[in-house]
Amino acid sequence: MKHITLIKELGADDRTGQMSDKTVDQLFNGEFRRIVEVRLRNRAVLSRHHADVPITVYCVSGAGIFSAGADLEDAQDLKAGTLITLEAGVEHEVIADPELHILVTKFKDS
Hints:
Layout: E1 22-29, E2 33-40, E3 45-49, E4 55-68, E5 74-79, E6 83-86, E7 92-107
Antiparallel strand pairs: 1-2, 2-7, 3-7, 4-5, 4-6, 4-7
């Protein structure tokens, strides 16, 4: 039985010249979690939304702002290495400054 599944080797994006200002790619969809890669360029915005399950957000590279709460009143600077967690149902938004590469893990109900 295989215990390790390589999802992706993260690093420089080989599609840089072809990339739109916002790309969202599902990398993994398993029984208990889903991993999504988000790339924002040119100060693009991942508009206000919420997840029905808890999430984590890990900044791979770049910089931006992660805002959360009913009025997006809580803000966290994102830079390479930043890891944050958010409970289910909390409104949030992400803004690149000027570019941002994040991984979002959504934890599924069992």
